[in-house]
Design brief:
The chain is of the alpha/beta class. The protein has 13 helices and twelve strands.
Length: 368
């Protein structure tokens, strides 16, 4: 994927682009439209439930923004594929049959869904790829800067190993699903930082991103390398990091090596506080979900200037070139910035993070 250069953001990211005037467009999506009014139906297809973000953040935030933009006249037709590409293909066809006005699609399998995307296009239904770059004639794409995510994770591994690092240090890479194009981008970004600095001794593509599959892969790596010979573990997301930690503890490891993650899930934030997990990547789901809603509404209402401003980047997929896109920046989440990121942005309350046995860990880093 081609991308424009975006620096790692240093603080809160929840401010809407349109709210701060970055669009350079007068007015809002609630104004009269030359194409469609506010009585629109937006299809939202999300990929799975194992990662809690989709049900907890993406879906409700997207739905709320569509309601706001359409003065509560628009509606969202929602379906979650629960990690099944076949189920998602059926869900997409149902939305085509129901003649929704626009579809926002987070693909389970970016390649397999291409025929469905073409069917939607043939029926005059625009498709916006969300979070994962689906193949086929999509109209736009919104996601985080995925290679940058991997770079942040890779740099974090090197930083965690410190000045005593050696090129012979053995790293295990726990990548995401091979059917997810984002996983390839995360991996490429990470390798750009790890290459020549450490030894990637084992690397796995984890089926369906499932923590139990990551745990099984990690057990294989421990058997092959020996737990004491693993200097760090690159985990592409937080769910898998949990499985990796279970495998290491099951092997008797008491001092865990640095382990990365992504998504800032609540258990991961708590593991970062206790030192079980070194870092995660915080991504502003409100910004992504709300911007996707803005793009969808602007597209179907014919507000081309607003749409173009929202999708000012360009990316290539295996099937299409120069796809209008918005790439959202990310933040490396560590003990030191929990308060200024996930707490400040309203993801979690301190009472949630510091509940029960985690209170002492919160006290130790001044979270109060």
């Amino acid at each position: 994927m081609r991308r424009s250069g975006i620096a790692v953001a240093a603080g809160s990211l929840t401010l809407s682009l349109s709210a701060c005037g970055a669009l350079g467009v007068a007015g809002s999506s609630t104004e009269a439209s030359p194409t469609k009014g506010n009585d629109i139906t937006v299809g939202l297809l999300l990929p799975e439930k194992a990662n809690t973000r989709y049900e907890k953040f993406d879906h409700p935030m997207f739905e709320a923004k569509v309601a706001e933009l359409t003065r509560k006249q628009g509606k969202v037709e929602y379906a979650n594929a629960d990690a099944s590409a076949r189920r998602q293909a059926r869900q997409l066809q149902e939305m085509i049959d129901n003649k929704v006005d626009v579809i926002v699609l987070d693909a389970v399998d970016a390649h397999a869904i291409a025929d469905g995307v073409k069917k939607a296009k043939d029926e005059g239904i625009p498709v916006i790829a969300y979070d994962r770059l689906a193949e086929g004639p999509i109209d736009a794409y919104i996601s985080f800067d995925n290679e940058l995510v991997g770079e942040v994770q890779g740099r974090s591994v090197i930083e965690a190993l410190g000045s005593g690092r050696d090129t012979a240090d053995k790293i295990v890479m726990m990548n995401g699903s091979s059917t997810d194009p984002n996983a390839k981008q995360f991996k490429a970004g990470a390798l750009s930082q790890l290459g020549g600095k450490v030894t990637v001794a084992k690397s796995y593509d984890t089926v369906e991103w499932k923590p139990e599959n990551a745990k099984a892969n990690m057990e294989k790596a421990i058997d092959a390398l020996g737990a004491s010979n693993i200097a760090a573990v690159y985990s592409a997301n937080d769910g898998m990091a949990g499985g990796i930690i279970d495998a290491l503890k099951g092997a008797g490891v008491t001092k865990l090596p640095p382990i990365t993650g992504q998504d800032a899930e609540l258990p991961a934030v708590q593991r970062i506080l206790t030192g079980d997990q070194y870092m995660s990547v915080y991504k502003s789901y409100p910004q992504e979900a709300e911007s996707a809603a803005e793009m969808a509404v602007a597209k179907i209402q014919g507000k081309d200037i607003q749409f173009d401003a929202l999708a000012s980047d360009r990316v290539d997929s295996p099937t299409d070139k120069d796809i209008p896109a918005q790439l959202v920046p990310v933040v490396a989440l560590t003990k030191g910035n929990i308060k200024s990121t996930v707490v400040q942005d309203g993801f979690y309350k301190l009472s949630e993070i510091c509940a029960g046995k985690f209170q002492s860990a919160c006290d130790a880093v001044g979270l109060e």
